[in-house]
């Protein structure tokens, strides 16, 4: 098993405080404390701290003004009283089950949040476990997921962890060569959120490189069937609500956190939804063609996680809205595709800054005389640059694999 200080230069440097990296003649691992188990414990602790961080809203009211100043705002409480959710079907099913369980335990909004929080924690631990199994020789790399500040702050904001667990399951299933289970996981993820469909593009690129389009067809057919089976009840029973979700995606204008909002604010113009759809489609198509070219011509074969991260990043960069919790879309892919603490800290630091700025902007604390929420726009730009930098690091590693050297069992990138 490869140790953290052998794989990551930053960890190797920091280990100097306790004597430096482990030498070649040192004894083996301590059997009673497996690295994977530590990762799961860390994930649990991180999520527990995240739930405690929301207690200000729980004690003073989820609709109170402090929900933004204290960074404890969440979409979950509002779903308890609502008759339905304007979300993908798996999210709606989950919320309905959690609501029934809440009424059985204690009929209150706070209990609904607690019940969902426990469920989300289990999903986070499941995702961490599956990610450690993708690369069982390097489980410590998933510590960047387990102790993620993004997970701590945004895990209880919405229902993103449903799709995160599904994406982790897809990565694990594909690492085992189980195409059917990979398709089921992607179908479940797409029924919880739209972005996991980008993983099919990543697999298509791998299939083209390997000349195995039949494998991609199997995954795609199973994913489509899984998504359809989950959506059929909603399509039959609540067609207008089901159609309304997809209609909203099409007719939505430039929303908070997006590149398009930044473009509008900087230019002083407004982009019509129809024009925005065309522009976003063209840019997304260009990015995906670039990723396809990279995946086919790269010096070494990209991993599923690397191509998946690049494809989801392309979606994130051109999306018409970017909420702070969307960082979770990237997290499981990023810790596998770029398991370097230097890159993780830089990217997640920018995401945390954007999370805080979004909340404080909604609280009216970031307005500026130079324009509407000018400081907020700056944090959007910082976050976009960090995301591009994360993707750029993956691209560079594919174009220049010779920059990876191994010396005394230490891998340096």
From TrEMBL:
Keywords: Cell membrane, Membrane, Transferase, Transmembrane, Transmembrane helix. The chain crosses the membrane at residues 32-52, 111-131, 143-174, 180-206, 213-233, 275-298, 304-323, 344-366, 378-399. GO terms for molecular function: hexosyltransferase activity. It is found in: Cell membrane. One of its GO terms (cellular component) is plasma membrane. It is a multi-pass membrane protein. The keyword Hydrolase does not apply. It comes from the Bacteria. Coiled coil: none annotated. Belongs to the glycosyltransferase 87 family. This is Membrane protein. The lineage of its organism: Bacteria, Bacillati, Actinomycetota, Actinomycetes, Propionibacteriales.
